[in-house]
Write a structure and sequence with these properties.
Blueprint: H1 2-22, H2 25-51, H3 55-78, H4 94-117, H5 131-161, E1 165-168, E2 171-174, H6 175-187, H7 193-213, H8 217-232
Antiparallel strand pairs: 1-2
Helix pairs in contact: 2-3, 2-5, 3-5, 4-7, 4-8, 5-6, 5-7, 5-8, 6-7, 7-8
Length: about 240
Amino acid sequence: MTLLAHNNRLEVWPFAMALRWMKQPRVQTFGAGVLILLAVYIPAFGVVSLIRPTLPVAIALIIGVSLVVALAIISWLSQRGRTFAAFGLVLASIRWVGLAFALGLPLALGAAWLAAAFPSPAPIDVSSLQRWQQAVFFLVAAPVQEEIIFRGLVQSVLQEGWSGTIAIGRAQLSIAVICTAVLFAIVHFGSGLATVVGALVLSILAGEMRRRSASLVPAVVVHSLFNVAAMLLPPA
């Protein structure tokens, strides 16, 4: 009986530790961020799977549906004590926009060179799109959509639970920014390691820009610069 009870305790202990770990506020906050991403993207990909449209329409639907869902969640949260400004939906000063260009452009070119030097098959072949379609989708629509979702919605939720920073060299980086960057990189995992690294760099820079300026505008500028550079330096 003693040995059986001991074995039962050994079997239950990992589950008890897992439950205790899951009850940690920071873990629950991170879980909320993951659930938000699922809530935003599942309807978009569900609609595309049901309709099976052409590639341009599919991209437009994914961007449009996920953006509408994200804005609906932001609107719902804003009615419960938050404001739209808390999600970065405000204009930025010229200083922050200029800083976004100054820091974003060299990093964007570096990330594009890395992706071109170590090419990987893209999850979706967009070469059939016309040039104007690529510009509208990837230089305007996608940067706005993804920044509202990741830096506007997810990062803001994580920031409430993880308000601290960690020192990396002389820089103080927000834990919420880093966690959002990890999620953003995971979303781009199917595009290859070089793209994942670029997405991580983009996300950390855009996240810190959004956090320090309190606006999504610098983050959108940085994101668009990365996409411009990727279009100018396509993989060989």
